[in-house]
Every structure is written in structure tokens, then in C-alpha cells.
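Sample pair:
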Amino acid sequence: MEEGSLISHLLELRDRLLRAILAIIVVFIPLALVANELYEFLAKPLMEQLPEGTSMIATEPHAPFFVPFKFAFAVAFAVTIPYLLYQMWAFVAPGLYRHEKRMVFPLMVSSSALFYLGIAFSYYVVFPLVFKFFANSAPEGVAVMTDISSYLGFVLKLFFAFGIAFEVPIATILLVKIGVTTPDALAQKRPYIIIGAFILGMLLTPPDIFSQTMLAIPVWILFEAGLFASRKFIKPKDEDEENEEAEFDMDAEFEAAENQLETLDSQPEEGP
């Protein structure tokens, strides 16, 4: 019984992964046709800050061809994030309580929206400020000409950092909802949260104080937003939820006992 259940779970996991990969490929194909235009849009914040007469460069022979396709694939992955989260939820849903399932859809929508908001914030707010600072701080006689591969790695790292950092309200609400902590306890740890935000900025962004601060301050503000939402919307478990969890646990124990009895009954009796 246990072996069959494990195999069925592995088969379902395989199907979910295949659907996720197929979704990324389906979105990537049309984006690949406009890969150069997508990269031009990505490079716009830097190009607007470069000194007149300078441009980006490619230091590798294959870079002008492959770099736009890499960015198109990254865009395809970002676009399919809601579907990927749905596949993840569909895989774990059978093991969730009823009230936990009701939370999943709002969390999926809000987490996806916050991830996209973090990417938009980095592109429209952080990039112009950071690139202007870098371009104007170049020493006299140094021509600022960024390699396209290095630029792609730099901006993707910032996109990922800000997208993940903007999930702080979701993490805060989940910690309160599952009972790990309380809003009052989190409020008391606010100084440590602020220090942690700057440490997170140091780890997730390139090694310059400017981009670290641009990440740390929104993380702090989003933590305060998550703290406010947890106070406003998260209520202690009511009696129905506690009864539901107890009933779910009893059913799981009963099913496990039945499986054990069936296993014992199927074993051959030993001879005298």
C-alpha cells in the first residue's frame, strides 16, 4: 500500500513538472521571435544613462545571438509563475485542511502580484538611479561600455532579489497564520528585522551600498505592511477549524491503522 502510494505521488509529481516545463516552452516560443526587441527594452534604463557616443558591447562572439534568447527564456519563466504555483498547489492540496485550501488562491494571486511588483520597482525606480550613479561616478578618461552578458546577469540578479524581497508580507502573514509567531512578537523584533533587511540587501544585490539600501528600505516597509495585514485579517483559530484539524488527523491515523492491518493479514502464516 505504501509503495503504491509513493509511486502514484511520484507519477503525479512527474506530470506536474512536465506541465510546468511545457507551459514555459509554449510561452518562450513567441517571445523568442522578438528576443532582440525584449533585450532593447531591458537595456533602455542603462542606455539612457550612458554618455553620448557610447554603447553596450559584446566581448564574446556568440553573445549577440544567445543573450537575447536567455532573457526571453527568463521572461517566459516569469510570465508562467502563476501557473507554476498552481501546479505546486495542485500537488500538495490533498494534504491540506479545508480552511488552508481557502487561503491558497488569495496567496497565489497576491504572491504573484508582489513578485511582479518587485520586478517593476527594480526596473522603473532602481535601475535609473543605480545606472545614473554608476555612469556619473566613472573616473576621468574611463569609457563606460557595459558587456551585454554582464548586464543581463546583473539585472536578472536584481529582478530576482526584488521579486523575492517583495514577498515579505506573504511570509509575515503565513508565519502568523500557522501560529509560529504573533503580530506583537514580530513588532517587538522590529529592530532585528531592519538589520536583517540590510543584511538581505547585502546578500541579494551586487556589492554596492546604493542598491543594498534600495532593497532594504522596501523590505522594511513591506514588513510593516505584512504586520498590519496580519493584525487586521488574521484571527485566532476558531472551534470549527480546530475540530476540522482534529478530524483530519483522526482520519489519517485510522487510515494508517487500516493499512497496517491489511499488510499483516496479507502476510503468510508461519508453519509450526
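The chain has eleven helices and no strands.
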